[in-house]
Amino acid sequence: MSYILQAKDLKKYYGKEPNLTKALDGVSLNIRQGEFVSIIGTSGSGKSTLLNMLGGLDNPTSGSVVIRGKEIERMNDEQLTVFRRRNIGFIFQDYNLVPVLNVYQNIILPIELDGNKVDREYIDRIIHFLHLEEKLSNLSSNLSGGQQQRVAIARALASKPAIILADEPTGNLDSKTSQDVLRLMKVTCKQFHQTLVMITHNPEIALMADRMIRIEDGRIVRESQTETSGGGR
Ligand SMILES: Nc1ncnc2c1ncn2[C@@H]1O[C@H](COP(=O)(O)OP(=O)(O)OP(=O)(O)O)[C@@H](O)[C@H]1O
Fold it and tell me: How far is the CA of 97 from the centre of ligand 1 (A)?
């Protein structure tokens, strides 16, 4: 079985004894292409740290991350930046939109950075699903939190990356919008065989994944297939 994303005994320690924090303390994970995995756990359990490591945004203290067979620690900064842009779409808790660009420009930014052609029909579909039609020419800095979150989701989906890493992607949306957005993400991910790894506090949202991983004190304490796995996607 080949995996698209693997973590091998990942550890991330901050500080020194007696103030040592073991943000990640030996996490190993194998994720298949097209799989939708949710990561759930209390505040401070290590979820964001894990997602940052999986996306090559931070270096582990030890252990390794393998994406599409490549050990990302072996890449230099420039190689990693390009590799990330081509393979991974991020949805961050704080959105990371470019404030001086409008909504449409933000959405297509990763595509343009890579010099690729914009699939306008596909982008329009995402925009429609995320109810962003009316906002396309607004500066992203003038949007509400929930609107910015939807732009960040659209941007992550826009370039059809093989892997989407999402940190609380629906944290600012009401429960109905959250479920609608998650359904859209599931449909597009399935259509393009994308792999989705999502952090959430919300058990209902977590259960929409194929597999749910619970993390506590930097360790995986439970893994379970959900009822939606095995064909329900
Ligand atoms: N840069 C840092 N320096 C020191 N400690 C850190 C740093 N980043 C994270 N930590 C610590 O590592 C632990 C895990 O943090 P992390 O942000 O991964 O948790 P989380 O599960 O994502 O929390 P939340 O749900 O609140 O976002 C916490 O104890 C946190 O204080």
Answer: 22
